[in-house]
Automatic annotation (TrEMBL):
Alphabetically ordered keywords of this record: Amino-acid biosynthesis, Cytoplasm, NADP, Oxidoreductase, Proline biosynthesis
Catalytic activity: L-glutamate 5-semialdehyde + phosphate + NADP(+) = L-glutamyl 5-phosphate + NADPH + H(+)
One protein family per Pfam: Aldedh
EC number: 1.2.1.41
Keyword Oxidoreductase: yes
Known function: Catalyzes the NADPH-dependent reduction of L-glutamate 5-phosphate into L-glutamate 5-semialdehyde and phosphate. The product spontaneously undergoes cyclization to form 1-pyrroline-5-carboxylate.
UniProt source species: Paenarthrobacter aromaticivorans
InterPro entries noted in UniProt: Aldehyde_DH_dom, G-glutamylP_reductase_CS, Glu-5-SA_DH, GPR_dom
Family of this protein: Belongs to the gamma-glutamyl phosphate reductase family.
This protein's pathway: Amino-acid biosynthesis; L-proline biosynthesis; L-glutamate 5-semialdehyde from L-glutamate: step 2/2
Recorded superkingdom: Bacteria
Compartments it resides in: Cytoplasm
Entry protein name: Gamma-glutamyl phosphate reductase
Annotated region described as Disordered, given as residue ranges: 1-33
Organism classification: Bacteria, Bacillati, Actinomycetota, Actinomycetes, Micrococcales
Length: 454
């Protein structure tokens, strides 16, 4: 049998918060835990993760792939249990007035569970990054050098209302030889509890340490705070969520952070772009799943383009509210319903069926607008002008730059990386979709035959 979720830690009583959600103030035996108690418990979890990480780092690919497939099988077999737990979280979120976008991210469906299982199978089919030789050479003195990928060790993730992340990050961490500590937030407490239990039992069933997947959800916000301060126990921390969550982690963490950024994503339609392509791509980029970070939030249209009426009409028919500048409003007239835009709109990651729209006179204006308002996530140009495409690629400094395709492709699964930890908007170590390799670091191996330095 697998171990309890948090052995050697204070037992959390079955006390519920509002609408059945896990309380943010942890209790043991009906008595609130002190910050010191929470610190002791979280440090114990991290220490067990460190021990599990050493075993995971020695597991070969076949062993890790068996674990991933065991998790997928368990998710299928216990699908009803997961969906029932998720329904409780969704009902609580709806009762608490959670926005439609957040409810969408919170919701698991049979199709989304199938997607998680498919992602795990895809991960199992990918090469093991551990041991990959990044570079190597033999020096004139005969020393043989190799720089190889090795696991990070203990990876922590703090995220909100995204139960799919529980499986995605765990799968990536395990395949790359790491242990993972999860803080998924109270909004998805029931779902995450069910998923973590499945993950741990699947690991145990193939002889890998259950403690390679642990959670601090039962310790609430203070547990997350302790996790952020656990430098030396946790090797890297990855936040996923809205701007407030990410900036809180970046600002307060003593553990090294890989910053996944908010997605104020732009698409620029230049004057050469075709109407059919523009309509299809904008509908996909805005409406296919508006609550995710690679959804387009601002559309820039060249003043010489003729596609605006068709694009605007298609978006409005799909239920998108258009927040437009004066030139767009004048160009559309009364044929398409719009609302006025201001600077807040250019800076907003709506994550909903809203889109800011501005008119620009040339590529320079589009680039300048993007540079002013971008979060460095994903930007796209729709064009049949090769020179414009090349300039856009060269002059836009974001994690992903796309030509003539939907911004929705910026994720690990669509780009062939399997699942993803998140989309990094920083420039150190990892940038863009973070897959297996991004959860490894490197180690130098130097082999000699008695050489000494002169």
């Amino acid at each position: 049998m697998t171990e309890a979720l948090t052995p050697d830690a204070p037992v959390i009583s079955d006390v519920s918060g509002a609408a059945g959600q896990t309380p943010e103030s942890p209790v043991a035996g009906g008595v609130p835990l002190s910050p010191e108690d929470v610190q002791t418990a979280v440090h114990a979890i991290a220490d067990r993760s460190r021990k599990a990480a050493r075993r995971m780092g020695q597991a070969n690919r076949a062993w890790k792939d068996r674990a991933l497939r065991a998790i997928g099988t368990a998710l299928q077999e216990r699908r009803k249990h997961v969906l029932e737990a998720n329904a409780k979280d969704v009902a609580a979120g709806r009762a608490n007035g959670t926005s439609a976008a957040l409810l969408d991210r919170l919701t698991l469906t049979p199709a989304r569970i199938d997607g998680l299982v498919a992602a795990l199978e895809n991960l199992a089919g990918l090469p093991d990054p551990v041991g990959n030789v990044v570079r190597g050479q033999t020096l004139p003195n005969g020393l043989r050098l190799r720089q190889v990928n090795v696991p990070m060790g203990v990876v922590a993730a703090i995220y909100e209302a995204r139960p799919n992340v529980t499986v995605d990050i765990a799968g990536l961490a395990l395949k790359s030889g790491n242990a993972v500590i999860l803080r998924g937030g109270s909004a998805a407490a029931n779902t995450n509890e069910a998923l973590v239990q499945i993950l741990r039992e699947a690991l145990d069933s193939v002889g890998l340490p259950a403690d390679a997947v642990q959670t601090v959800d039962q310790y609430g916000r203070e547990g997350a705070n302790v996790l952020m301060r656990a430098r030396g126990r946790v090797d890297v921390l990855i936040p996923r969520g809205g701007r407030d969550l990410i900036q809180t982690v970046v600002t307060n963490s003593a553990v090294p952070v890989i910053e996944t950024g908010e997605g104020n994503v732009h698409i620029f339609i230049d004057e050469s772009a075709s109407e059919e392509m523009a309509v299809d791509i904008l509908l996909n980029a805005k409406t296919q799943r508006p609550s995710v970070c690679n959804t387009v939030e601002t559309l820039l249209v060249h003043s010489g383009s003729t596609v605006l009426p068709a694009v605007a009409a298609a978006l409005r028919s799909a239920g998108v509210t258009l927040h437009v500048d004066e030139r767009i409003a004048a160009a559309l007239g009364k044929d398409v319903e719009t609302v006025p835009a201001d600077d807040d709109d250019w800076a907003t990651e709506y994550m909903d069926l809203d889109l800011a729209v501005a008119m620009v006179d040339n590529l320079d204006d589009a680039v300048n607008h993007i540079r002013k308002w971008t979060t460095g996530h994903t930007e796209a140009i729709l064009t049949n002008n090769l020179a414009n495409a090349e300039r856009f690629i060269a002059e836009i400094d974001s994690a992903a730059v796309i030509v003539n395709a939907s911004t929705r492709f910026t994720d690990g699964g669509e780009l062939g990386l399997g699942a993803e930890v998140g989309i990094s908007t920083q420039k150190l170590h990892a940038r863009g979709p973070m897959g297996l390799t991004e959860l490894t670091t490197t180690k130098w191996i130097v082999q000699g035959e008695g050489q000494i330095r002169s």
